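2024-03-11 09:14:02 INFO receiving multi-entity request
2024-03-11 09:14:02 INFO entity count = two
2024-03-11 09:14:03 INFO echoing inputs for audit
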Amino acid sequence: MSDKIEIAGPDDQHPLSRLRAFTEARIGLGRHGAGLPTRAHLDFAEAHARARDAVHSDFQAEAIAATLESAGFTAIGAASEAGDRATYLRRPDLGRRLSQRSVADLASRAEMPFDLVVVVADGLSATAVNAHGAAVAMGVLNAVPKSWRVAPVVVARGARVALSDPIGAALRAKIALMLIGERPGLSAANSLGAYLTFAPKPGRSDADRNCVSNIRPGGLRPEIAGDKLAGLIIRAAELGLSGTKLKDDADDRLGVETPAAAIGPAAD
Amino acid sequence: MSQETLKALLAEASPARSGDFLAGVAAENQEARVKAQRILADTSLADILNTPLIDPAEDDVSALIEAQHDAEAFRPIAGFSVGDLRDFLLSDQATSEAIAALKWALTPEMVAAVSKICRNQDLIAIARKRPVVTQFRTTVGEPGRLSVRIQPNHPTDDAKGVAASILDGLAFGCGDAVIGINPATDSPSAMRRLLDLIEELRLRLDCPVQSCVLAHVTTAIDCMARGAPVDLVFQSIAGSEKANASFGINLSMLKEAHDAAQAMQRGTVGQNVMYFETGQGAALSANAHFGIDQQTMEARAYAVARAFDPLLVNTVVGFIGPEYLYDGKEITRAGLEDHFCGKLLGVPMGVDVCYTNHAEADQDDMDNLLTLLAVAGVNFVMGVPGSDDVMLNYQSTSYHDAAYVRRALGLKPAPEFEAWAKDVGVFDEAGFLLPETDGGDRGLIARSKLLEAAE
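2024-03-11 09:21:47 INFO inference complete, emitting structure
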């Protein structure tokens, strides 16, 4: 009765393992009885934990503002009407509305209309924005024409994509660019999405926007995203529009995904 | 009773969930909720029948609900209150046959109402008594069986990637509900390519399964007109004409697709040709809920489903996000409600037991709901490799989960598929998964010629 119990080998022996080259899907994991092998179970748990942490991570708004200001840009804080994270998750409508105080703060900066406002916002992954929100914003601002009147970068807390509408309206900005943390996936918890809206004002729909998603190391790299986004912004300014019509024109040149609705719930 | 009174009563009696708060229709506190449940329990079914929640002249789903109602079948329960209906359904008098006889007597609003005064236990016990069996190449929904959809999604619809996921699922004894792919691109050519892929694999393995590419119904109609091998036609549906319009569909389009698919006569043991998906919150997200709570709206979608004799109806319960169903508790409740309401209305219900990363839920919650639904007699669940849908970016049940719950509760797959899986060495003589080391899946992989194709 003292025979050693043998357990089948690791899952890289699985006959399907060679097919993993064709898909990211978790195939050929092997099984013990019906159960998931320990390694595969903990791999999954780790990916999910990373995504959960990203949803609930602290938004380092002050650090982002400090980074921007040390590079010579002006930053201003703003908040939606979603007071805390639990409210934010339950009430996307509140995350699309600007708090009264922020409306007043922003309006006081808008003596003259702006050509562009860039918003850096937490969305569903503060992890993403903390990591590369400021860098992408600076990349954009460095690449748009020097003659443009650019608003202070708005660092917004509790934001959904459409918060860029009241922000843009309060600042009287011709174009709003929202850089926002996307809903974390198991494969990546640090993706930033960029949403461009011409003539932002409350009531704009996803069809009025253009979206560039998956901005992260390993996706669209943050250090080159700024140039790409600036190209899209300049094109929107030339044509005087954003959304589906801009896509028709810019699709091939920029590889832009649009309208925003086409990529699903993302951060909205 | 006025339309507004009944809407408010149903909404306030609904167990708490974030979507009803978002819509501003939820009870203001817990005591108010239970008070509403007491009033609802005393409300007569006849009152509910005579108070359409949306004017049938302005909403074709309401008109359909009215047209489906069978006054003759209703007569034995015409004097019931909602509370009486609950008591009856729980009683030993309510046999499978007795409940099934009420299929066209019950309306979505009646079953939604009774669900609101049921505990989870009641939702399970009653649904378990009401099997709904449908057929195409397999027979789905018999008591003692649990079928699985293989969901082999791929972000670019890569043929080898999709095929690898399918094969992994077949080796676990999954796929007897359907092999159903959410395509990355909704076009007739993309759909055709995926259909041909499954068709080739199915014929090579001589496996009794049906395929579905979950493109828009108009894409399927286009494909059928060009002679593509369409087994099941898919469409997302909801509980109002306006919500369906937001999906770009109406009832006559569903009828056209249904008739075209049936005319192809591709089923062997039956001709249920539709696959529908639903989910609480869909109508609200399209601003097409008319002040009706999300669970009642969901039950109304089943009136649409049952008009077309579907093979499969799947409530995608946790996909929509925490603004509609906040956490594991709300997702669990909604999954049991949807399954219960669908079954009472004679709909072949399956459930996508799932969650997104911004919901307060995890694998443990999914294990619980899967187990509860399997006890309740759910027709089918999803099988996603390792629970991770790499195209839709959410987590559903896995091939492993399906194998777990079949083994834990002694459930078998569809009989035609069971016979095939025994034949190829995936199942033992009793119909349960053989140890992996016995090499059944190696044989299957060899027969698929997939590895050769991948060289």
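2024-03-11 09:21:48 INFO post-check: Residues 7 and 316 of chain B are 24 Å apart (CA to CA).
2024-03-11 09:21:48 INFO post-check: Chain B has two domains: 3-128, 134-436.
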